[in-house]
Write a structure and sequence with these properties.
The protein has 280 residues and is α+β, with helices and mostly antiparallel strands. It has two domains: 31 residues; 186 residues. The chain is 30% helix and 22% strand. It is built from five helices and nine strands; from the N terminus they run αβββαβββββααβα. Strands 1-2-3-9-8-7-4 form a seven-stranded antiparallel β-sheet. The longest helix has 32 residues. The chain starts with a helix and ends with a helix. 22% of the residues are buried.
């Protein structure tokens, strides 16, 4: 018995060393330096779209940083005083991000592909509608917050450069980092006298942050594969309504308003490269 035990110990040690060596190699290979975005918020400083129906009445201050994926966020207002928020972001997987912010996300309609009779394919079949805008290849969503507030969101995947629409599903994009931390200002500082006052809470916060940065993917969390980064050649154009009033009529009206706002922004983006060429 003692002889068998003496053989088992080195075998176990060899296996442990092999596992550690494998993890070290995979961890080293999974390191991927962040590739700076070629297009940044600074490229849209003079972009202020306006039409007879829509105008920009507000915008979020953007950091002109090549590591920030948000290119612009506008508050739009139409001639009737209705307001819609529109954003352009690198490869933003809106449904997954909002689910992790405790929203219920429902796909109302998928209008990315036309049928021969002019309708649009949906997940449950084909629904015929009047086309909203020729550029739009969009998905329509209804979001419900944890307190029951509902809003309409519309997403469209567009190419970088000419901003033409694509048939990509927004859900195919790399999952973004979570924004719902217990304390957004918390930063890991290693083992300090302050952190040792609440070691359990600080350890949990550290693990949650790492899990968030790994986009809730176990292999990425264990450093067995590279972290997914937003694609440089695809952008997500997203627009959403304020909180809806009760009633089906309010929902249908909001859908039309958000569609109109997104189509307006998309048309302005498509015209942007030509305007820039004329300025040169």
């Amino acid at each position: 018995m003692a002889k068998h035990q003496s053989k088992a110990v080195p075998i176990v040690l060899i296996i442990c060393l092999a596992v550690i060596a494998f993890w070290v190699i995979m961890s080293h290979r999974s390191r991927n330096s962040f590739i700076p975005f070629e297009l940044t918020a600074g490229d849209f400083t003079t972009f202020r779209p306006r039409s007879e129906q829509w105008r920009v009445v507000g915008s979020h201050d953007m950091t002109y940083d090549e590591t920030i994926p948000i290119l612009f966020t506008f508050l739009l207002e139409n001639s009737d005083g209705q307001q819609i928020t529109a954003s352009l972001v690198y490869g933003y997987n809106m449904p997954e991000c909002m689910k992790h912010k405790s929203y219920e996300v429902e796909l109302l309609e998928d209008r990315r592909r036309r049928t021969e009779d002019g309708g649009r394919k949906t997940e449950s079949g084909i629904i015929n509608h009047q086309p909203s805008q020729p550029q739009a290849r969009i998905q329509i969503w209804k979001l419900t917050s944890d307190i029951g507030d509902k809003s309409i969101w519309v997403t469209a995947m567009v190419r970088t450069g000419d901003y033409e629409g694509t048939d990509l599903d927004v859900r195919s994009m790399a999952f973004p980092r979570l924004a719902s931390q217990d304390n957004p200002n918390w930063l890991p500082r290693g083992v300090t006298a302050e952190s040792m006052k609440n070691p359990i809470n600080n350890t949990q916060a550290y693990i949650r942050r790492k899990w968030s940065n790994a986009r809730c993917d176990l292999a990425t969390f264990l450093k067995l594969k590279k972290q997914a980064l937003p694609a440089q050649d695809i952008l997500t154009l997203v627009a959403h309504s304020p909180t809806l009033r009760a009633g089906q009529e309010s929902e249908e009206k909001a859908i039309q308003q958000v569609l109109s706002a997104l189509s307006f922004i998309h048309a302005e983006l498509i015209a942007l490269p030509e305007r820039e060429d004329k300025r040169r």
